[in-house]
Amino acid sequence: MITSSQIEKELLNFWIDSENKVSPKKSFQRIYTTNVVVYTSKHLFGHYAENSLGELSTRHPGRYILIRPANDLNTDPVRFFISGHFQIGDKNEKRNCCEIIKLVSHSPILNQMYSFASSLLMPDLPLEFWWIGQIPQNDLFFSKMSSIADRIWVDSQIFENPLWDLKNFELSSRKYNKDILLGDLNWIRIYRWREIIAELFDGAWSRYLLRIKNITIKFGEGFSSFRGLLMACWMAVNLKWNYIGKGIQTFPEKLEFQSLNREPITVYFQKVKDSDAMNRLYSVEIETSEPEKAIFQVKREKDPQCVLSQSIVNGEIIFSRTTYFEHLHSSQLLLEGLKRFEPDRVFEKVLQLIRTMVELHE
Amino acid sequence: MSKLLTLENSLREGLGSQRSGVPCSLVIFGASGDLTKRKLVPALFSLYQKHLLSTSFSLIGTSRSQLSTDEFKHRLKSALDEKIPGISSALWESFSQNFHYLPLTGGFNNLADYQALSKLLNDLDQKNDTLGNKIFYLSTPPEVFEDIISNLGRVELTREKKGFSRVIIEKPFGHDLASAQMLNQKIKNVFNENQIYRIDHYLGKETVQNLLVMRFANSIFEPIWNRRYIDHVQITAAEEIGIENRAGFYETSGVLRDMFQNHLFQILCLVAMEPPISFEANAIRDEKLKILKSIRPFEEEELKTSACRGQYGGGYLGGEKVVAYREEAGVNPLSTTPTFAALKIYLDTWRWVGVPFYLRSGKRLAKRISEVAIQFKEPPDLLFKNNLQAISPNVLVIRIQPDEGITLKFETKVPGMAFEVRNVNMDFRYGTSFTVGAPEAYERLLLDCMLGDATLFIRSDEVEAAWEALMPILNYWETTSPQEAFPNYEAGTWGPAMADALFVKPWRKWRRL
Known about the structure:
A: eight-stranded mixed sheet; 30% strand; B: alpha/beta; 2 domains; seven-stranded mixed sheet; globular
């Protein structure tokens, strides 16, 4: 039987050996700022999780524990693999390192490994729990790890039914731990878009927020526009719009809201011919009512890493900005998410709004 | 920091850029100079990239150089390219679209130039909706501060009829107490104190700000942060560089004016001050002022044992030969300007009475490092005296630059059968513990000024109190010859040997850095 002490001992020896072999002149320093536990019950996601953690551990010092299904015929009930990562600083005398512990098993043992994973956590450090898969109704690992985690991460992009899963995300997680923080990698994917859109309404331009009439969100044909829905909900939540449309079960073509001054606002979702494999948003166009008609738009340029944001009032371009940002991979998204450790109240309100929209249908 | 920002833009809620700059125009006097290229524009660019610069932001550069706006922008772009390679022309265009340049036709004292500036600011306000907010950054020699400020007053740009009007002033804030008082008075003739932002970039450094968090957000430190547990404190700001091209300035200022009156005394304040009643600017500045006023005045006799001065001779740094101070271009070959100083300071407060604070700073020292070291008292030598070497005292080191972080040195047993004790370090490094890099000091300070948060800027009474504390040493050094003939330390070393004499107790000595 494998024990956590055995793994810790192996890790210690591993670092002593590595220090002697790899870096005899510079000592290693094991650094942890957080615990990250990642769980998936699918082979496909197991590989994806391994890659993501491998990248993340080189950027963010932590104790990483991955629980994934075995993808071979080995019949051992549980196996473990350790790998170490160190960052080479230019001037640092010490090399900072951290490790990934991979626990591999077959179902049904897999979801019973919560206590083993818990025994490997670094004490007193925050616990981030990344659940890769659909939101489960009843899963032992999910419930046990949620009950002790500080935050749970999901990626709504991989949900088969994102509306249903996000509707249940908060309820399912907080059933076991009412204080747990909630995170969605897809929400972080649209972070920069949100920032660019918000920027257009700074200062005197905020007066247009009360006169928004229509929003058109465009996305590539053949892809899910769930990010567009998150975007629309984000604006609705921050601008305190009421949802007045019908209940939704599948992805809608439009959403209807009412503004604080009781004016109707319609959000349209439009498909455009765009073969971007990354499934990114194509554009967000915000139109205000007369008399001073204004359009605020953020649009992806030919270079997919480049977006153009513009404020156009009465047909005249008042402000224009080009912003470059790289497509973030899962590890980078999680890294962005780990930077902040406070409740994301706006996201929670977005979840509540989605729940309202879905429950209206039910 | 104070919550001065009330956002109308509710879309910012929940975003990291929630504390973003308000619409304003920034006017830089002396914009063709080094500071604009090296620090200010890179800081603005970084704010822009982080979406912290308002979309209604304008920059007006002005100086005596006769440049067009295009030439001005071209210079800035070239300088920025050196610092951040690979900025595309589209990105630069969108960043600099509201940059303008206004050459001064008659030096800094031609009213017509200020009228033109006023008109340009009005036009930009109309065009960009800057809400009438304006900041004037004086990046000029101090001799022209008065001209600029009085002319701004004459064209009423200092009045806050519509929006705010603020002025940022770079050090030196005067040359001595009298000139500082005069300068303060002249500025206050046209600006109110709450419009004045005296910048000390040291206060914009993350670790300096973290001093307050470390002291007042951790319950373990405050109970031992006093004379009962602390033996002494060392504050070091060492520079590798010489005077570079600043001979004119340095010859008339020296290390005390350049480093102690501002940077070192400000750090001293943050280390020693009492907890403020709130995290508001004036509450913190009130406490800092008390520390400056509590510095025990130096008697002339004491100066021989409490202050040490030095000047670098030639030597080697990084294996390369460097010249002596007196051989630097523009320096008097017989100059007695100190390039190194070390002071022993006592604070006459209930908390610190009897605890010496050792401050040192110099040019051409062995390496660039700034830190605060709190050395605790030794434990009673009872338990281990028979089988051990002397036990080292605990030291808490707050590194300001480079490699910002905190280290606690403590004793531990060496594994083995023998009872051997050795000290080890427990390290916290900003660079590794957080995945986000610390912003540049100017970035932070420019944003704070836009938001009206003066916490990290220096108030006039602080400036004057710092000068008052320093004047006895300045007067003494300017009227007496150094105890040791200059130069008295070799470039690439840790300063003159006589700096060690400030320590009377045998267990106290300068930290080896």
